[in-house]
Amino acid sequence: GENVEQHPSTLSVQEGDSAVIKCTYSDSASNYFPWYKQELGKGPQLIIDIRSNVGEKKDQRIAVTLNKTAKHFSLHITETQPEDSAVYFCAASPYNFNKFYFGSGTKLNVKP
Amino acid sequence: KAGVTQTPRYLIKTRGQQVTLSCSPISGHRSVSWYQQTPGQGLQFLFEYFSETQRNKGNFPGRFSGRQFSNSRSEMNVSTLELGDSALYLCASSWTSGGGNIQYFGAGTRLSVL
Known about the structure:
Helix content of chain A: under 10%
Shape of chain A: globular
Strand content of chain B: over 45%
Structural class of chain A: mainly beta
Number of strands of chain B: 11
Number of strands of chain A: 11
Radius of gyration of chain A: 13 Å
Shape of chain B: globular
Order of helices and strands of chain A: EEEEEEEEEEE
Oligomer: heterodimer
């Protein structure tokens, strides 16, 4: 089955700096790649997603890039703010199943 | 528009007991998926229900089961609880089944097995 690896496990940045989280996947059948943010005591919240027919997608301070050949995708957060502090998960989903394979998570700490 | 609602939020059970968790999807959503989240194993897929039928199943023992009702609400049952079943159980809903669907998560049910 699919295997998603996520790095780094923890990331500490200064407010205003950029943060980058990287994920790799193994199954070429995966074609949908969402990113979730999980705050303490809450469920994961979708922040951005990308499909395999797109190389890059941006939404204000957040962007995601996808390299299908290398089977990796990355989350970029610019101008980080303290409220960006949370755990971020990447996921991969095969084209015919409503099933997500999640990365192990990245704990992002934005220092004021 | 109400989000995904999971009840109860917290549960404490003892080994050997059974438990039932409930999930109400976003109105109009017909697919409900369940995930287990633990510090050691992360987020793992349990199963998906669509139109009252189980569509996909993860690698969990038969003690974990679920069902979906005609109004798309879903329940998950764990029988003969073990200490290792302590986890946050998350429910996610989406419009339909098949791949590439956005899934919206509830806040989860925190299960503690003593």
